[in-house]
Amino acid sequence: MGAAAAAAALTIVPRHVLGGSRNIPPSEKLNIAGVGIGGRGAGDLDEVSGENIVALCDVDEAYAGGVFKKYPNAKKWTDFRKMLDEQKDIDAVVIAVPDHLHAVIAMAAIKHGKHVYCEKPLAHCIWECRQLTLAAREAKVATQL
To answer: Which of 145, 92, 94, 93 has its CA nearest to residue 121?
Structure first.
């Protein structure tokens, strides 16, 4: 009876009491996709490596090869559109492709209901930035540049 009571007590103690503030269970982690991971994107992924890296997308598989190897459980993609359409477990997208594609990929991710972190510049012009802002508000997703 004493052991059962002790076990029951442990199940109602808050996680932060037992594991500390940095012990985050997998169920509370974001599922992150990286787009453009060969260069700057590799560093961006390092910054969020405490989360679940579930998808990696780069058109140059050779250049991004080291990152693909670093996250062997992440699904590999070469087309961000297919990734967003087909992989449903993504919560957020980290974008670090050449500048002229930032707004296109960010908008696609937002329209799929994904949170977005994008390298700067966010877009080619002010109109694109405003459209992204409106889409993010409508989708109720967080964005960061």
So the answer is: 145
pTM above 0.90, yes or no: no
* CA atoms within a 13 Å half-sphere pointing along the CA-CB vector of 18: 9
Predicted confidence (pLDDT) at residue 74 exceeds the cutoff of 60: yes
- Terminal C-alpha separation, the chain: 55
- Total Cβ atoms within 10 A of residue 105: 21
| 6-16 residue pLDDT tens | 555 555 555 55
Per-residue model confidence (pLDDT) at position 72 = 96
- DSSP designation for 121: P
Band of the pLDDT at 121, cuts 50, 70, 90?
confident
Distances in whole angstroms, Cα of residue 145 to Cα of each of 41, 63, 117, 133? 13, 24, 6, 12
Q: What angle do CA 73, 68, 66 make, to 5 degrees?
A: 140
Give the whole-angstrom CA distance, residue 54 versus residue 75. 6
